[in-house]
Amino acid sequence: MSMSEFLVFSEDLEQALLSTDRLKAEDLVASFSNLSTQDLVEKIIVPAMDKIGEGWESGDVAMSQVYMSSRICEDLIEHTSVQGDYVKQPSVKIAIAVLEDYHLLGKQIIFSILKGVGYNTEDYGRVTVDELVAKVLIEPVDILLISTLMLRSALRVSEVKKLLQQKGVHTKIIVGGAPFRFDTQLWQEVGADATATNTQQLLPILENYTKALLC
Amino acid sequence: MLGTLNSMQRVLASVSHQEPDRVPLMLLFTVTGAKFSGCTIENYFADAERVAEAQIQMQLRYRSDCYFSFYYAGAEFEAFGASSIFFEDGPPNAGAPTIRNLNDITTLKVPDIESVAVLQRILTTQRLLKAHAGDSVPIIGVVISPFSLPVMQMGFSAYIRLLYEQPEAFEKLMHINQEFCLRWANAQIAAGATAICYFDPVSSTSMIPNDLYLKTGFKVAQQTLAKINAPIATHMASGRCIKSLPDIIKTGTAIVATSVDEDLAELKKICLNKVTLMGNLNAIEMRHWTVTEAEAKVKKAIEKAAVGGGFLLAENHGEVPWQVDDKVLLAIADAVERWGNYPLTWVES
């Protein structure tokens, strides 16, 4: 497939995802018999989800559409006829968690996409500060993604950072969630290494970190 | 412009799309009251008198034009058998979802308000505030909309799947939630609430697209608001709403509280002489504002939306965060007194 064909395919998929039209999305993927998993992920799904994430940031796309799109993409990667498992960087370990809140939506969206694009990601679910630190200490990860909804939880990321540093663990911390969107200085205040509100922002950060880790 | 008014007169004039003496300031205080009572947040919300006393003190100190009788979002969820998780420095979190499968919706019953301790305490607070202020200060009661409550009841992702994939179960859940919402709203009005704040963040276009809103949250709001015996302020809890605003106006709401992500001047054009606009100071960022920044933000909001009335200055989140400093809140009040006196000749010129 040429780049322009990939682009058209990705735009068609984006429209199908925004309409939560699962059948159309499946038909689109099925119509390309020679598609590799890597091409499906990197040239079609990621650009489509980037556009959707960009739309959410600008107010043109709703969170429900982002969530349903991420679920459809996860299923597309798992169940379509494309060939072969795709693990982007098996040696880089990533974990994702929601700190204290029961609002897991943002975490689930990011987890689905990371899994889909081939990152070796573990889902810690909802955790307290102590639980999160304990999990990282038991099984160290290279990059820790922390999602929060409430300001109070966001501020507690600094405790996670402090406790990990005290134990000599220097895992990269990337934060996301409403408090970090409404206060653009907050991620630095809590000692995070980066912040991202959608996959378009997150994936280049992960790309850079994984490159650095593998050097 | 009218002569010096009390808070009730000021707010009523503005929601009637007239210019009162100054721009009404609606600071929605919840956990901040625990600081005034000198106790933990959990103990604060365990005592209806403490909450009423703190509301009175905060309204005086920060020159706000309302009492906010809301405790915390999970209070209504407690009516459905859930727990709340208290912290020392922030609002309680709602506990784990109680609806885990579709069968839980089938067997769900409308809770009895009288048997829910926290709801009874809220009603007591409202009675105390009404006894204290009479009709001089609006008492804002709160309901979580039937359409937004399921985020706590079943978790956000499960609820989105329900919205898209299980229309019958959705209708059943809305039926139960609407009945509860109506009973709870009208009990608050009977206890002294002047108006009801209808928290409906799921209806925000940040959460669902407008076409889905029209099929779901819009209908729920239209049916529910028609049966609540008081003016309604629809609050998006910092979610965007400009694209669905013409439809939100059709639900019968009197006030719409908007997001800091949207431009007050654009919102005001749509609301003009139809509904009152409330907003939209950034409650999260407010924590590290300087006095100068607070004044600039207040001035900008007034400049964009206050001419002609139909505007209530507030933060966009739905409650002032615990971390916001006293000096910032005083600076906001001072700025309203400096820049918010009608006529707003400095804006018009």
Characterize the structure shown:
- The complex is a heterodimer of chains A (215) and B (349).
- Chain A is of the alpha/beta class.
- Chain A folds into 2 domains: 77 residues, Methyltransferase, Methionine Synthase (B12-binding Domains), Chain A, domain 1, CATH 1.10.1240; 122 residues, Rossmann fold.
- Helices cover 59% and strands 13% of the residues of chain A.
- The two termini of chain A are 32 Å apart.
- Chain B is an alpha/beta fold.
- At the A-B interface, helix 4, helix 7 and helix 9 of A face strand 4 and helix 9 of B.
Find the CATH superfamily of the largest domain in chain A: Cobalamin-binding domain
CATH class of the largest domain in chain A: Alpha Beta
Tell me the helix content of chain B. 40-55%
Oligomeric state of this protein: heterodimer
- H and E string of chain A: HHHHEHEHEHHEHHEH
Shape of chain A: globular
**Share of residues in strands of chain B:** 5-15%
What letter string, H or E per element, gives the SSE order of chain B? Answer: HEHHHEHEEHHEHHHEHHEHEHEHEHH
Quickly give the structural class of chain A: alpha/beta
**Overall number of domains of chain B:** 1
The number of distinct structural domains of chain A comes to 2
Averaged pLDDT of chain B = 97
Provide mean pLDDT of chain A, rounded: 90
Biggest sheet of chain B, strands in spatial order?
A: 1-10-9-8-7-6-5-2
Biggest interface reads: A-B, 28 and 39 residues
What is the topology?
The complex is a heterodimer of chains A (215) and B (349).
Chain A: H1 3-18, H2 22-30, H3 37-58, H4 63-79, E1 93-99, H5 105-116, E2 120-127, H6 129-138, E3 143-147, H7 151-155, H8 157-166, E4 172-176, H9 178-182, H10 186-189, E5 194-195, H11 199-214
Parallel strand pairs in A: 1-2, 1-3, 3-4, 4-5
Chain B: H1 7-15, E1 25-26, H2 32-37, H3 41-45, H4 48-61, E2 67-68, H5 74-78, E3 84-85, E4 93-94, H6 102-106, H7 117-133, E5 139-144, H8 150-154, H9 156-165, H10 167-191, E6 195-199, H11 210-215, H12 217-225, E7 232-235, H13 245-249, E8 255-257, H14 264-271, E9 276-281, H15 291-305, E10 311-315, H16 326-339, H17 345-348
Parallel strand pairs in B: 1-10, 2-5, 5-6, 6-7, 7-8, 8-9, 9-10
Antiparallel strand pairs in B: 3-4
Helix pairs in contact in B: 4-7, 7-10, 15-16
